[in-house]
Input
Amino acid sequence: MAWRGAVLAIAAALGLLLARPPAPLVALQERVFAPLPRPPDTGGIVVLDIGARDETGALWTRAATARLVARLAEAKPRVIGLDMLIAGECDGAPAGDLAAALRGQPAVLGLLLSDTPGPPLPPARLGQTGPLPLWQAAGAETPCPQFSAQDWAVMALMGDADATVRHLPVAVAVGHQTLPGLAVAIAARAEGLLPLIGPTGLRLGATTFPLEAGSLRFAASRPESWARRTLPAAAVLAGQARPPADAVLLIGSSLPERGGLRPSATSPVMPSVQILADAVAGLRSGQLPHRPGWAPALEGGFVALTGLLTLLGLLRLRPARAAAMAATLAALWAGAAVLFGRGGLLLDPVLPVVALALILLAALLGRAAALARAERVLRDRMGQVLPPALVSRLAAQPRLMRLEGETREITALFTDIEGFSTATSAMGAVEMVARLDAYFALTCAIVLRHGGMIDKLVGDSLHALFNAPLDQPGHEAAALACAAEIVTATEAFARENNGFGKTRIGVECGPAVLGDVGFGTRIDYTAHGPAVNLAARLQEANKALGTRICIGPTLGAREPGLVALGEIELRSFGRLPLYTLRA
Output
């Protein structure tokens, strides 16, 4: 059949789409991946956060950095990593003091990349085999000569297409020289290893990290975890805090004016030194997330295969069982993808499931259309031996007895709470819902007691019908008595609830069309007609008239003893004689 071919085509198209995802789809997947990998344990890593001022209250300077490095050296750190530029201002005491403080320390300093070639850079501690797809740069900021004996690495953080930083460079080819990324250099120095970059990825000791286009993906931690590994640099200088011994100490700043904030998967403003801490922790623990190049093909293949299985299931099984089978396959995929994602292997747990749901929907619709065509053929055949009306009723409504449309005289009653927006602006959500529950419990009980039907509850409004769905003799008087009791009851309710609950009511009678309206299981028995619309307008007219109950002209002419309000202009209805109840 044609629908089967259409379902197969949809399955193939969705599978191909996931196997070769366009940029917008990749961006959606990255949002899904963000919470999957577990951030590595950052035990043994301490971030020294440089603020605007040092321990004396003066603005932070390079001299303060020198004092900080000297203080950190007392803790015998495993490595000191500087996520800050040490270039320019090479002459003078501050530069000399910092160079002296760093001399003999296991320190790794950061370089910034440049668009213009520069002089040769210090040699890098990095092994490389074969041509690799590394990040390229024309040059880098040249360090001061006093610092040339230190280890140097690249501080570059380049965002993805949406500017979010999810990857760090394993190394950067600067001119004819290759420099390691800062995280790689710090992790290697901390473990006493020489990082080796080869065709299989980055190797640190016995662990090999696969690369994604020459970069490493890191698992970003959340802001609440940053404080646990961070010490204020000024507090360390003042002796109020002390880093542990044999730790990896990372110096950087979270101040926006220092330009170190980047959007990450967990925060739109993540300090670069915190990104560095996550990457170093992942490298040291061997736990960096990775999305292999074959992952899209696997996801697309899953969609195509399960789409075919879903189609075969619908051809052999009942729709409910076929849908359950597809749901089971989707749940197994999502569960496995989440499990692998928590371990660092990133497979999409969402989009393949959505694609399978679309295939199932298309298959169900196709089968429903085919069954509808078969039903028409069967109806024509049965119409030859059974009355057509009976055939239509059995075929269309075998179990559900649905009320058909009818025109009947009804009285419509609409309520509204006076000053609802103002009264609820000072309430919390819980209090507002609680008071509305109590209010509707009161007013709905009154309507039911007078024989009315609750048509709808819309916001703070109640819509009620009298003489529907069954005949109700005296429905006009019943509606007016109901309105009077609601006003009396809600006045008392308002006195107990700080003025909340005073009610305005509109009432009118007339012919209306009633019946079930809806689709599938969403069916609503309701009324349509001028009397219903006018009752809503009358409820609104109370504001201008200063009344609690406003009654329309048809009901006003039928019921004696009402108070005439005169002819009033109503939007969409013109000038009408209106009434209210006698006080």
About this structure: The CA atoms of residues 137 and 174 lie 5 Å apart. The radius of gyration is 37 Å. Residues 351-382 form the longest helix (32 residues). The longest strand covers residues 503-519.
